[in-house]
Amino acid sequence: MSTKKRLGRGLDGLLPAAPSKETKGTHTARIEELHQGRGQPRQRFDDGALDSLAASIAEHGVLEPILVRKRSSGGFEIIAGERRWRAAQRAGLKEVPIFVRELGEAAAFEAALVENLQREDLSPIETARAFARLAEEFGHTQEQIAQRVGKDRSTVANALRLLKLPEAILGWVDEGQLSEGHGRALLGCPDVPSMLELARAAISQQLSVREVERRARATAAPAQKKADKPAKSANVRDLERRLSHSLGATVAVDPKKGEKGVITIAYDGYDHLDTILARLGLEG
Q1: Do 150 and 7 touch, CB atoms closer than 8 A?
Q2: In terms of domains, do 35 and 72 share one?
Q3: In 50, 99, 238, 262, which residue has its Cα 20 to 30 A from 27's Cα atom?
Q4: Do 266 and 170 sit in the same domain of this protein?
Q5: Catalytic positions, please?
């Protein structure tokens, strides 16, 4: 066993004990008898990696059985090992070794997820969507998910937060154009347009996660300040409108505590300033 920490209980911990008739060894099945798992959390299969695995399988065969369960319509549904099955097809194999287990939907999906996580075969978004399915479809809490896949609860929570990103950014993270860290940093933006703008900049300028975090905070600060500022009353807005019309300039009235306040007059150049001063009776 490698020094790398094993995920949770592993597949063995998720699967019920095998019947005695299955402990004598694995079975074999024809390639066409196997079908893609309905709950496969992995959606992307790298062609180059599949070709390399196919070359190895052509020389050595499939060394690890594919975990399957029987289908009511015939054949077997793959629980863990779809990558090996795909590579075996490329290698021209007619049969593959299988290990049959009778599992329900939840147990089968958990087994597929754990196998992919152990092999580090899932992208951050595939992992997040798998965790979301365990929560939404099978009713698991974040703590239960963490126990089943051998992760900290905070890791599960951070993964699920990624799903708050817009679909376009989820796609960029899934494709590897942005990292998981970039995705979390973008969540600091105040709205979707600013997220998309910063994400595009992160890709084109190859920004670090720390720089994206800094820019996200800078984007959020004015929005927060604006949100915290109380709305002006109708009387104040009307006063601003009348003063702006009278002076031919943009005027802002900022009431303070009590009866005090500040009036700000904006001008676009010295000629404009002279005009404003003239209307105030201050020329010459």
Answers
A1: yes
A2: yes
A3: 50
A4: no
A5: 82
Whole-model pTM above 0.70?
no
State residue 78 phi and psi, 5-degree precision.
-75, 130
Q: Residue 210: its pLDDT value, please? A: 94
In this structure, are 62 and 115 located in the same domain? yes
Q: What's the pLDDT at 4?
A: 40
Residue 61 falls inside a structural domain: yes
pLDDT of residue 228: 58
Domain range spanning residue 104? 10-122
- Are residues 220 and 260 part of one domain? no
Neighbours of 236 (CB within 10 A): 15
Task: Decide: 250 and 266 in contact? Cβ < 8 Å.
Answer: yes
Determine how many CB atoms are found less than 10 A away from the CB of residue 234.
Answer: 8
Residue 57 maps to which CATH number?
A: 3.90.1530.30
Domain boundary among 105, 122, 139: 122
Burial 38-75 (b: 16+ CB within 10 A, else e): ebbbbeeeeeeebeebbeebeeeebeebbbbbeeeeee
The answer to whether the Cα torsion of 10, 16, 20, 24 is positive or negative is: negative
Task: Give domain status of residue 153, yes or no.
Answer: no
Are residues 160 and 142 in contact, defined by beta-carbon separation less than 8 angstroms? yes
Structural domain count, the chain? 3
pLDDT in the model for residue 41: 62
Establish if 85 belongs to a structural domain. yes
